[in-house]
Design brief:
mainly alpha
């Protein structure tokens, strides 16, 4: 049971890391709009 919860937490951690990377890349590149769209779609899927 605890191992299952840990796996779920790790999955969400990697998802958040990917979102953070998308945010950073979106801010660095001039095409920040596509980065925000990616973040919005990820957030919308998880909601």
């Amino acid at each position: 049971m605890n191992l299952k919860k840990y796996k779920i937490l790790m999955t969400h951690f990697f998802e958040l890391t990917a979102v953070l990377q998308a945010i950073i890349q979106g801010q660095i590149s001039s095409n920040g709009k596509s980065g925000n769209t990616l973040i919005w779609s990820l957030t919308n899927e998880n909601a």
